[in-house]
Amino acid sequence: MAEIGALYLLDEDNTPFPLKYIYNKVQEKTNGFSWESFEAYKHLKALGYVVGRHGIPWTMKTDS
User: Chain-centre distance of CA 4, in angstroms?
Assistant: First the structure.
């Protein structure tokens, strides 16, 4: 969303973070993902696919 201008992440001075900074944060915080996996995910999402990890539930919500 940040790439297409639909999301702005701001610092404490209300200055938008550069896209490169956001990419670095994504790369740092990817639990078990590599940058290549993120690029593949982003590409498939851009093509309209619904992407998820095998064996990981879509939601933690349970029926009550």
Answer: 13
